Amino acid sequence: MIVAGGFWGDEGKGKIIAYLALHDKPKIVARAGVGPNAGHTVYARGKKLGLRQIPCGFTYEGARLLIGPGVLVNPEIVLKEVELTGTGDRLGVDRRCTVIESLHIEQDRTSAHLKGKIGTTGTGCGPANVARVNRVAKLAEEIPELERFLTDVPQEVGDALGRDELVLIEGSQGFGLSLIHGTYPYVTSKDTSASTLAADVGVGPTKIDDVMLVFKAYVSRVGEGPFPTEMVVEEAERLGIVEYGTVTGRRRRIGAFDFELAKRSVMINGATQITITCLDRLFKGSSGLRSYGQLPADAKAFIERIEGELKVPVTLISTGKDPENVIDLRSEKL
Ligand code: IMP
Ligand code: MG
Asked: To test the ligand 1 pocket, which listed residue (222, 244, 254) has its Cβ within 8 A of the most ligand atoms?
């Protein structure tokens, strides 16, 4: 199963992946997506973690954790998060991952175009991907500190799928930030749709059985670019849905659920299931609930409208920060 973001990132993928890992017990959780520009929030070990490289599925201790060759790595952040999560014995980093160097970070942070106009995260991802395209990038296999983690991720994933084992592919960013399908030039430095997430870890399209597309009950966007359903700051404050970025700490722009963007996202990602997150933040009385029947009528009507318009079942609904605050409808709907 691939877990992909449906809007502009920060849909709550981290928490949902933690839930799926704990309940479905995958043999492998493999991180896909751009790189450490993403911050996946997960509450684990009694702490709030904003993971940028290690898969959030680390919360299930039985899973091997992999970072696919398509993902950019910043060795410093990898090592810091290994320590934070205590996962050094089960992490694998693909030899071919592109390494982000300090020069890339400096370029990203000092460029008037990238930092100023586009509003990048300043984590060096764009310049590192440019280095890869120019075929001058350093690879993970050249970094001594990463030596003990190096592996062949596509081979490991392929072998697991050959044994019919469950593999969870953890996407990052969101559909609207795709270099190909998003709001160019206000996008990240790579495609972020499910097809590329599969390629990031080396899985062919015929091997993917499920694409779980994650939408937040409202939309947020950090950085510049078009945002058709954006609301004024006061409205977000009134609704109590103000947010700040995990990586950059920037205040996120907030808007209403965008049905048109969601439809296109469903189509291009080939979604087979939908998760709606942060329902508790939009609908009073839904906090922490674990059964659909207990939801207030307005929350149910919202979920039904999403299913009606997108024509894909909403199988998971997140009602709080804890990985267990989930309404899981998979056994009823699939
Ligand atoms: P970059 O990926 O750092 O080059 O930034 C390009 C755009 O993508 C900026 O608008 C960033 O705010 C946005 N972006 C990149 N990664 C994420 C993410 O994980 N969540 C939300 N926005 C992101
Ligand atoms: Mg995030």
From this structure: 222
- Indicate whether 134 pLDDT > 90: yes
Which mutation among 121, 181, 246, 253 tests ligand 1's pocket best, with the greatest number of atoms within 8 A of CB? 121
Place of tokens 């080396």: 202
37 lines ligand 1 (CB under 6 A): yes
**pLDDT tens-digit map of 229-257:** 999 999 999 999 999 998 889 999 999 99
User: Is the pLDDT confidence value at 44 over 90?
Assistant: no
Residues 6+ apart with CB under 8 A from 159: none
In which element (H, E) is residue 281 found? Answer: helix 279-282
pLDDT tens by residue, 255-286: 999 999 999 999 999 999 999 999 999 999 99
Examine residue 185 and say whether the peptide bond preceding it is cis (omega within 30 degrees of 0): yes
| Domains of the chain listed by start with CATH number | 2-333 (3.40.440.10)
DSSP, res 54? S
Which two tokens mark 189? 């430095």
Label residue 99 exposed, middle or buried (CB < 10 Å: 0-12, 13-18, 19+).
Answer: buried
User: What per-residue confidence (pLDDT) applies to 142?
Assistant: 98
Question: Is 152 one of the catalytic residues?
Answer: no
| Whole-number pLDDT of residue 293 | 98
Provide the token pair at 109: 């942070």
Confidence of residue 45 (pLDDT cuts 50, 70, 90): confident
Burial of 82 (0-12, 13-18, 19+ CB in 10 A): buried
Contact 141, 150 (CB under 8 A): yes
- Residues 178 and 188: beta-carbon distance below 8 Å: yes
Report the alpha-carbon distance of residue 96 to residue 258 in Å, rounded. 37
Neighbouring CB atoms inside 10 A of 128's CB total 27
The radius of gyration of the chain from alpha carbons, rounded to an integer in Å, stands at 19
Ligand 1: atom nearest CA of 224 is 10
